[in-house]
Design brief:
This protein is an alpha/beta fold. It contains six helices and seven strands.
């Protein structure tokens, strides 16, 4: 397993595929273990790196991961099989915004790590599949240190993307249903939990 993880890290580096930073994935695995997380939904599989590590962080964890890029999807399937985790990880080949989940499905943790410009749409769509005490965790909120400095970026595309991440952070900060904590770990992580109604 350790060898395969190293292989995946090398592959990601060689093919310029963004995978989670080590501090970020360590935080995620610890969170899963400490909070008895059983059912995880991941938006954005890439090559399966974070799905495999999340699934292996505790014997009872099951992960459903969604990927829209065919090459990444095939690579993810191959890696899941190599680890022998087919019974713990369900890889779905589809655009996450078009996926229809069963209304009865509930996840203890929803992990958003796909197209950054769509973060808010992912959050708004999948929040309805969150278990009552579940959390939505988002990665890449510092985006290599660019977030908070969008006015200094010259590239138009990069500037637009960073502005969308900044808008998403504002959305999290002002969301009346969810309370969000931000962690300066890896490339910046947020943990959003539904506010408990004070009745």
């Amino acid at each position: 397993m350790k060898e395969l993880i190293l292989e995946m890290e090398e592959y990601a580096k060689a093919h310029n595929i963004p995978i989670m930073q080590k501090e970020g994935i360590a935080f995620l695995m610890k969170y899963i273990k400490n909070n008895q997380i059983k059912n995880v939904l991941e938006i954005g599989s890439a090559i399966g790196y974070s799905a495999i590590l999340m699934a292996s962080s505790d014997k009872d964890v099951k992960v459903t991961t969604i990927e829209r890029d065919e090459v990444s999807y095939m690579e993810c399937l191959k890696n899941v099989k190599k680890c022998g985790l087919e019974n713990k990880i369900n890889v779905v080949f589809q655009d996450a915004l078009e996926v229809n989940l069963s209304e009865k499905t509930e996840y203890d943790l929803i992990f958003i790590d796909a197209a950054k410009a769509q973060y808010r749409k992912f959050f708004e769509k999948f929040q309805y599949f969150l278990a009552p005490k579940g959390v939505i965790i988002t990665d890449n909120l510092k985006f290599h240190g660019y977030v908070g400095k969008s006015d200094t970026i010259e590239s138009k595309n990069l500037k637009q993307l960073v502005e969308k991440i900044e808008a998403y952070i504002d959305f999290l900060n002002t969301n009346e249903e969810f309370e969000t904590k931000f962690y300066d770990i890896g490339d910046g992580i947020s943990v959003s939990m539904r506010k408990q109604n004070e009745k």
